[in-house]
Specification:
- With 142 residues, the protein is mostly helical.
- It has one domain (16-139).
- It contains seven helices and two strands; from the N terminus they run H-H-E-H-H-E-H-H-H.
- The protein has helices spanning 2-12, 16-39, 50-66, 71-91, 102-107, 112-120, 123-139, and strands at 43-45, 95-97.
- Helix 2 packs across helix 3 (50-66) and helix 4 (71-91) crosses helix 7.
- It is globular.
- The relative contact order is 0.15.
- Keywords: Membrane, Transmembrane, Transmembrane helix.
């Protein structure tokens, strides 16, 4: 555990403006995706505030830990993180998958959570890239 903390703590100690940039981008992204998922009846959070717990309290720290790794490594670690989140969300029924949604129709309902995890794992490398670009353009540093 000490080895993990020795590795993780320096990665989490970043400029407050960077963390704020992550929070604004990820919160907006989460609201948009929750709205889209409900609008096209794929899936949604049971409560809107879960955007805060999932996108800010869960995904931002993971993004900071994965920042700087190659795309494939961010995706692979992100897949594990999102697999746990998707499994937990549907097992605890804090996420709602619409019956017979588009993903169920294409991949069947047994593959729904897997498909969601495979898709949302892309958030980490894409999010880190996007937040880095936005932060650099606004504040002049990565």
């Amino acid at each position: 555990m000490n080895e993990f903390l020795d590795w993780a703590l320096p990665k989490l100690k970043v400029d407050t403006k960077l963390v704020l940039t992550y929070c604004i981008i990820y919160f907006s992204w989460g609201l948009l995706m929750n709205w889209f998922g409900a609008e096209v009846q794929i899936a949604k959070f049971t409560y809107w505030w879960q955007v805060i717990t999932c996108y800010i309290l869960y995904m931002v720290p993971i993004s900071l830990l994965l920042r700087g790794l190659p795309f494939h490594a961010q995706y692979a670690y992100g897949l594990v993180a999102m697999g746990l989140l998707e499994f937990g969300g549907y097992a605890l029924e804090t996420s709602y998958a619409y019956p017979n949604n588009l993903l169920d129709q294409f991949f069947n309902e047994r593959n729904f959570s897997l498909g969601m995890a495979l898709f949302f794992a892309l958030y980490f490398p894409i999010g880190n890239w996007g937040v880095g670009k936005i932060h650099q353009s606004v504040f002049g540093k990565a």
